[in-house]
Amino acid sequence: MPRLEHTSVPLWAVPEGAAPAAPDATGTSYLLVGVGAEGERQVTTWADALDGAPVTVVLAEDQAAAGVRLATALASARVGVRIRVAGPVGDCLALRGVAVRAGVEDDELHLAPTSGGPVAVQCCHCGATTPSEKGIDDVVSCTGCDRRLLVYYHVSRRTGTFLGFQIDAEEAVS
Amino acid sequence: MTGTQIELVVAAVEESAHAVRTVRLVAPDGAPLPSFVPGSHLVVDCGGRSNAYSLVGESIAPAEYAISVLLVEDGSGGSAWVHGLAAGDRVSALRPRSAFAPIASATRHLLVAGGIGVTPVVSHLRAARHWGRDVQVLYVFREGHGAHVDDVKELAGDAAEFFGDRVGFTERLRTVLAEQPLGTHVYVCGPGAMIDDVLEAATEAGWPASRVHSERFGLDALDPGEPFRVTLTETGTDVEVPSGTSLLEALEGVGLDVPNLCRQGVCGECRIPVSAGTPLHRDLYLTDEEKQACDAIMPCVSRADGPTLEVPL
Amino acid sequence: MPPTSTATSTDDPLVTGFPFPFPEDRYRYSTNVEPAGGAVVTPAGQWGTAVVDIDVEYVRELDERREILARDPGRHAVLPHMRGAAWDTLLTLMREMALTNPDQMTLTRDPGGTGDAHAWRWENRLLGVVQDFRYGDDATLPDEPLAYIASQVQEDIVLLDQRNDALWGDAGVVTFAADWSFGFDVGMSFLEIHGPVPRLRELGVITRAHEFLKRLQPHEPYRRTNWTLTIGRRLDVSTELYPEWGPDREMIQHVDDETFGRLVHLRVEVQHLIRLPESGAICFLIRTYMLPLEQLATVEPWRVRAATVIAELPEDMADYKGIIKYRDRAAAWLLAAGESA
Fold this sequence. Notes:
Mean pLDDT of chain A: 93
Number of strands of chain A: 9
Largest sheet of chain B: 5 strands, parallel
Shape of chain B: globular
Shape of chain A: elongated
Radius of gyration of chain A: 17 Å
Number of strands of chain B: 17
Structural class of chain B: alpha/beta
Strand content of chain B: 25-35%
Structural class of chain A: alpha/beta
Strand order of the largest sheet of chain B: 9-8-7-10-11
Number of helices of chain A: 3
CATH architecture of the largest domain in chain B: 3-Layer(aba) Sandwich
Oligomer: heterotrimer
Largest sheet of chain A: 5 strands, mixed
Low-confidence stretches of chain A: none
CATH class of the largest domain in chain B: Alpha Beta
Helix content of chain A: 10-25%
Distance between the termini of chain A: 30 Å
Largest interface: B-C, 36 and 39 residues
Number of domains of chain B: 3
Mean pLDDT of chain B: 92
Distance between the termini of chain B: 25 Å
Order of helices and strands of chain B: EEEEEHEEHEHEHEHEEEHEEHEE
Number of helices of chain B: 7
């Protein structure tokens, strides 16, 4: 496998990957998104340090709710905003997808996973999404077509999912 | 530069603003000219020296290439040469080169022009009209010296604001920069100091680098390089490599068969050893260590740092 | 066992026009880009003079593309900001085809003589198409512009938007992918798309290609080739359909020599790299050619070199190309083919 930093997998999305660098503080407004209790804690820490600049906070229990509110906030945001997301790694990937689809640039976005946890795997054959606890190299049973999928080191930034394809297509049929 | 050169004929010249001449160039046979990306410039052979001028006209297989050139009194003479053109004159140029393109994913384009820096902005505005893009223009120029004011008014309507003084412009700029919806990109073209001020204002307003684009006038045209002489030690010949000719072309010119592929400095095929002299590396193939060792060169793009080079060929 | 068929391939246009991909006896990844358009003379004929290549398989491959898109629309994507690039691709490819095939195709500007510089007429007599349209006006075409032009060329098309000092795969029609998924990759950067390929990044091959593409200028197209082996004359070997074609890699190990030579194809992609002149996007055209080993073997220099290259290919490259299970046999088959009559 090529070195991870040469692939589409963000380094912060794997357990052995590097911790994200310090977030950009050159914005003139901030949109802070926290998913779960840990996410809320991180958002509070950030907000306390961002003295003076206008800060919008979005807190949610799950990624779907956070995503809807993030998209709404982005629709009325102005250039100068910086977006920071804190939550379990799978949620960070999904919310990066929301931001990317809304036109947020990479240098306006900071993702800080608060914990590991399941990531979403997209089945290349039927399109269904299946969770994977272990991530890369894991084998999961597709919730859509039942095939055994290998979780590949390839991540879509628009959907926040890992690529999954059938691991045993070439196995000899006895 | 062979291969990318085009021959044009002056169709018309016009004093379009104070000290600004607009020259319309057409193909000698009247055929449509190659399309260009908005914001592109034409590198014109101004009597031996190359100068780059932004194209201001329509960009889709256009009937003409139009440039608006400000006469610069103590410049290198290129603008004076352009101001001396008359209808019927032949002009050599390179095909348009894109270095200041509109960002396709921008949901809004904020165009900031200073003086003759309005020329690529006019090009952007023509494309914006064709593709239905959302634009806003701030154009500052010395009172009475504005080029393409009518064009900007016609293309941008109420979205364009004009300023004759720096103070009014700067104040309005700060307000405008602070109120742009996420998705906007800003483009600035004009004198260097003006660009610096605008970039500083954008940074202060929190704009990330990804959304800020500038084109400085006095751009580097393609640098044809200094002439030098290469000595081929095996055959004992000296070959002159003039400005505008690559080392590879010069070697091929004396019958040497140097393996090559991309002729752009990326593939590595044309690598030859160097036995004396210092290479001026312009390629993307050799590693930093290899470049420092100075014992190899990619002749398709690299030259000599100094008057001579020696290769064991 | 040597092949029993000794049919001469010298007149077969699929042989004479085959873009044999091995310039040397060993193959490694390289930034093998060269200016497009020049004829490449081969022992069997020549290829390379057309940026858009129409051959005897034209109608058949267009039909296949249509079927694939009907079954899986995910192979076609144009992110909203790529509309201009899609139109640019349409006009650029029409112009290319009209230039290279003037007897069958014509592109006329302002056909009505009304002075409208954006009015065009496209005629494709191979398909019986006459289409008037206004450039940039979606309502004047029966289909989205990229889908429209993709339905008339055999090439797969990927469009890359250049921004932020990077290239983004934001539009395309890809129905003949060699083990990748355009539908998954839409929106990824050029470097991300190539992330899974071993060696490319470490060697700097892909970063040099990236730098090269970012500097590409309009009206100066370049090209390169890529290759693999495919079992069966099967164009669509996308990751989506891996459950269908993957088992062939097991099956092929158990067939007789005659079948082996008939089924195993040398698959070559000729890629053209074009800076679209008005939108500034990069257009990647990927044209796929396949020749079964039994026909490849009838061209002696090809037979010998292919055998050498396939045998010598490093394990990790053979594994990534998906040929590790049968490449030794393919090399041996080609060598043995020279020992017959």
